[in-house]
Amino acid sequence: MFSPSVYTSRRYRLSKRVESGLMLFIGNQDAPYNYLDNQYPFRQDSTFLYLFGLNIAGIAATIDADTGESILFMDNVSVDDIIWMGQQPDVVELASKSGVTEVRPLRELESVVMRSVSLSRPVHYVPPYRGETVLRLSSLLGKSREEILYGASVELIKAMVALREIKEPCEIEELDRHMSVSREMHLTAMRMAHEGHTEQDVRAAIESVSMKGGGMVSFPTICTVHGETLHNHRYTNDLKNGQLLLVDAGSESPEFYATDNTRTTPIGGKFSQMQRDIYQIVLDANNAVAASCEPGIFYKEVHLFACRVIAQGLMELGLMKGSVEDAVAEGAHALFMPHGIGHMLGLDVHDMESYNQNYVGFDDEVRPSEQFGLSSLRLGKRLKEGFVVTDEPGIYFIPTLIDKWKAEGICKDFINFDKLEAYRTFGGIRLEDDLLIMRRGCRVMGDRIPIEVEDVEREANYNENENYNDNNNENDITK
Ligand code: GLY
Questions:
Q1: What pTM value is reported for the model?
Q2: Which residues 6+ apart lie within 8 Å of 290 measured at CB?
Q3: Is the beta carbon of 219 within 6 A of some atom in ligand 1?
Q4: Residues 21 and 122 sit within 8 Å (Cβ to Cβ)
Q5: Does 260 contact ligand 1 (Cβ within 6 A)?
Q6: What is the Cβ-side half-sphere exposure of residue 60, based on CA atoms within 13 angstroms?
Q7: Hey, which of 104, 301, 325, 403 has its CA 20 to 30 A from 382?
Q8: Tens digit of each residue's pLDDT (9 = 90 or more) over 348-403
Q9: Segments of the chain scoring below 70 in pLDDT
Q10: For residue 431, how far is its CA from the centre of ligand 1 (angstroms)?
């Protein structure tokens, strides 16, 4: 955990932003996998982690917006629990790590909430995303599940976003430090991009790097020779020379901050000319994003800027035609990049997504678009110093989408459909860095993972460069 003053300060600043009432925070419960005692690894709710830091199941807390007082509701473990869990710190000691001095038994939560309800004070909560939290809130507040789902406090959401979107020095240090684990995960994948391995081999190796680095993966690993499927979570293919291996993977730091990087490596260690051409366009778009990010710029503008780089590159290859400006305005590039250029990063890989993107990535100045492609952009508002965002352009050749657009004549003035036939089995390329927005410009967090064509090829040929071969490399983690 960070020092207690970090959590005290966050709660103080939060209570200044919420005018009055009781803020209610329900921590996550253990989640059974297939029966009650066989559980998924526990992960605390990110709002709770942010304000109290305690990664403990089944606890709750309140912050009084009028007085600023915080109360933690949790119980000491019983002797029966200790038999199975071992000795645990007592609740007063745990609360002191959060900077909280008042701890009450969990059973008292109901009366504290009821008192606020009976005094007609507002009770604020953030949108629940787990069924049992909805039920708990429903029971505590005497409201239906539907009322709970639609009754989250916009005032609290906006206050939480205002705090969490600006990363504090301790959060930046944590993220920067943990980027070395993400880097090692991706180097491992690049070095395994050879025939003889499967997608599952590579996934297992990189997830092991994450675990050794102290944490779970920060989202389900994408490790695929079918990079054209944006969130591919199948790992059944053998790697074959000539294919591309797209790995979009990250690790959760000891303080639960997410890294999120993507690299695409030529299997066998050498890009074909066709792959290299597309790769370079994606890399140009990635670099253009990093060059344009600074406080005050709309991330939607950055997204459109990257789209223009992609459209320009595809026009030079003859896959698109017409004016770049018009093509991007019509959304023609979205045939190749149907997702947004990035999202916020923090305690969640899509930071604060449970609060509703309209409050996180958008505001009164910029609203979400309904245009195909642009509608997947999760962050459109102006960047501020202290934001951490992903920079993740891609180019994908999705046969079903190409066929649909061709059949329906969608954006036919900007796409050379005939030329796309040669790319039907190409797959996809995505290149993703994590950026910290600085007072002027931005920087890649951690040491940048190799990304230039030659550097990626060098990593994919790592064994040969080091005169290793499969028989004498003692450090080959794949054996
Ligand atoms: N890197 C996975 C995602 O952004 O959804």
A1: 0.94
A2: 391, 433, 435, 442, 444
A3: yes
A4: yes
A5: yes
A6: 21
A7: 325
A8: 999 999 999 999 999 999 999 999 999 999 999 999 999 999 999 999 999 999 99
A9: 464-479
A10: 12
